[in-house]
Amino acid sequence: MNLEKYKHIKYQLKPNKNKIPINHFTFEDLDEFNSIYKYARDHYKLVKHTQSQGISTKINERLHERYFVVKGNQRFELVIICNSGCYRFLLQNKKKEDNEISGQEACKQIYKFADKYNIDFNRYSNDSDTGKDIKTEIESPHIQVLQKLMLDKVIHHVYHIDFKSSYASRICEAHPELKDMYTEIYSKRKENDGYYKHILTNSIGCWQSPYCVDYTTRYKSVPFQFANLAKTAINGTRAKIEEKIKQLKKKGMVPLLTNTDGIWYYSDHGAYHDSEEGNQLGNWENDHNDCDFLMVSVGAYQYLENGKCKSVVRGLCNLDLIEKDRSKWQFGDLLNLKNLFTFKFSEEVGVYKTYE
To answer: 34, 137, 165, 271: which one has the fewest Cβ atoms less than 10 Å from its Cβ?
Structure first.
């Protein structure tokens, strides 16, 4: 196999993984990715990556020619270091957008903003053992069908409440001294919504992970270093959702479905309003109004607003095989949804498709 046709850097014994260019693949390129993996498996030595998914510098892992695979949720990375160079191959459902960033990079950006506001972020840290215990107290995001009798039925006059950057908002409620910093990050979403949205959300996942970027060094990993902030963000958002559900019911409205930081609800007398409504950090707003709505499961629904259909399906399904551009799906197509599938990894075949 001619690896040199792929993007790479010259061979180094101890390369910095972040300096190696990424060759992006989608699952349509599965065979090509697996052929590269099998070539590496048959020709080079398998080594372990670091806790932060980087290239190990330990003597027993620092072989001349080697490879490793990082396995994630619908995301697989193959790193090869060999005579012809150093390579990274990333396989995921869609190619990375220009404004997407990793959780670790999101953390580093938060730390830079903290520096700008003269905030010592260490004051919010916890040691790794404590953080690991705190992680067990973090609840799952609020994603729930609230009216199962309405599954597979078209519902008219449906609205959606969106909590504006809810994770950051909950942190600011608990730590008001951080509000100015977070407000600036939130305001920059007008310049580049995707990038700054990812800073606000992806940092939360990293802070409660074994790969959390150390605030002091900015490159080492300190597992679960800010798990307490992640708990504040996630559990606080769940509590806010539960509170709003009760308020909707008091107004005679029917909550249908929650989706982490939002609520779909039915109302025959217009949208819900209260004093917390607005477009600033800490507010909420009705971002979809008077829609036709169809939900077939907790992770699959469609809404029709002003004649335009939007489809949301967590994971991949049979409809993706028919038309991969979900913007072209028609309202009601989800009634034909079946065969949700995912991708897993085995040393024998590489990445393969499996049905749930």
So the answer is: 137
